[in-house]
Amino acid sequence: MGSCCRCWPPRFSVLSPSFIAPSPIRRVNLPFHHLPRRASSLTSDHAIAADFSWADVLNFSATRPQDSSGLNGFLDKVKMCNRNADKLSEFIPFVVEGLKVGFVHNRFAQYLREYKDVFSFPNDTSDFGYYLTLHSWMSTPAERTEALGEVIKSLGEEYIPGIRNELYPVTSSFGETEYLALERAAAPYFGIKAYGVHMNGYVERGGQKLLWVGKRSKLKQTYPGKLDHLVAGGLPNGISCTDNLVKECEEEAGIPFSISSKAIAVGAISYMDIDGYRLKRDVLFCYDLKLPEDFIPMNEDGEVESFMLIPIAQVANIIRDTDYFKPNCSVVIIDFLFRHGYIKPEEFGYLKLLQSLRSGECA
Predict the structure, then answer these.
(1) For the chain, which end, N or C, has fewer CB atoms within 10 Å of the first or last residue's CB respectively?
(2) Residue 167: strand pairing partners
């Protein structure tokens, strides 16, 4: 291992769950009889643990020559977060209070038809066409949240794998009225807009920038063993981006408030990805944090296996030519490469790549 790359294992601690159950309200009559056998489109291969070591990462990144194909390797990574746009026609709108808040695959919608007390399927040719909505007896966010929570509990892990008991807000766009809160794992099955915070934690040494990179635990439900940001997380219900970033900094890397409060908001990236019955419409708010040279990250929540400090030029090689990184992390780091001058206008495909970083609806 070269002198410019350092690796540390995590420290673990037990955290309290972030989910707070809503107060009891009207009980929904849900069908608990056997549903049709799950289709393969409901699952993904993102739970297969990556099989590579830090030695593989460093050996590759240090010896790889500059790719002569321009920026195509980076563009390929962006495309991995924007697959199957041609299949959007297979989804129907999810409408609440007359506004489109998501999309549901027409075959997944057949499972929801079992819950007749919760969902209805109007066909309004003047507005949304054939769409999914909620019955009017659910007139408050709390009632909608509980009703959909019961549906998701009924469907269970077989139909919505990876349930976390963490709620995401359901809105028409960021900062607008919240119509309900939805289990995080169910977000792509209802095609709602989901938001997150990703932070590039870097060090300046000897005139060059080095990026702290995490390696996800092999026990993670999604992308186990992949490379990740120093700090990243979804934006759950009831917390601001800034407060969430501070929380994630402490939990994921042991960064105290005295340091994390200096993180700089630098913009956002967006993408739209279709994978079977799942539609991800994500917006990630990006932050940069220049860390002290002697800072050593320590994971607190067990989600990170270890960390490595790697020169940015080598990180670029890894992203361009391997699939070691979790896909959406690659997009955020490519944005960092633009902003810090590692990708220059003279390189072929510069504007095409820049534009692709916001392929989804950034709203």
Answers:
(1) N
(2) 183
Contacts 24+ apart (CB under 8 A), 216-219: 216/303, 216/304, 216/305, 216/326, 217/302, 217/303, 217/304, 217/305, 218/49, 218/305, 219/302
**What confidence score (pLDDT) does residue 127 get?**
82
> What's the distance, CA 109 to chain centroid?
23
Q: Cα dihedral sign for 101, 107, 113, 115?
A: negative
pLDDT at 48: 80
**Residue 101, CA distances (Å) to 15, 24, 54, 193, 322 in order:** 32, 25, 41, 7, 35
Q: Where do the DSSP E strands lie in the chain?
A: 6-8, 91-96, 99-105, 119-120, 123-124, 129-130, 132-134, 167-170, 180-183, 193-205, 208-216, 227-229, 231-234, 264-275, 278-290, 304-311
Q: Which residue has the tokens 């977060």?
A: 81
In angstroms and rounded to an integer, the radius of gyration of the C-alpha atoms of the chain is 21
At 157, which amino acid appears?
E
- Provide the pLDDT for residue 65: 58
CB atoms within 10 A of CB 258: 7
Return the closest-CA partner of residue 72 out of 362, 360, 356, 290.
356
Question: 274: number of CA atoms within 13 Å, CB side?
Answer: 13
Core vs surface per residue 340-362: b (16+ CB within 10 A) or e = eeebeeeeeeeeebeebbbbbee
Give 328's contacts (C-beta < 8 A, 6+ positions apart).
81, 198, 269, 271, 282, 284
Mean pLDDT by 10 residues, the chain (363 residues): 48 30 43 46 64 89 62 97 98 96 98 97 86 96 98 96 94 96 98 98 96 95 94 95 97 97 98 98 98 95 94 95 96 98 96 98 92
Q: Is the dihedral of CA 308, 218, 257, 170 positive or negative?
A: positive
Q: What is the pLDDT of residue 124?
A: 82
Nearest to 260 by CA among 278, 287, 285: 287
pTM for the full predicted model: 0.88
Give the model's pLDDT for residue 49.
78
Q: Report helix, strand or coil for 135.
A: coil
Sign of the torsion formed by the C-alpha atoms of 192, 195, 196 and 200: positive
CA 212/CA 259 separation, integer angstroms: 15
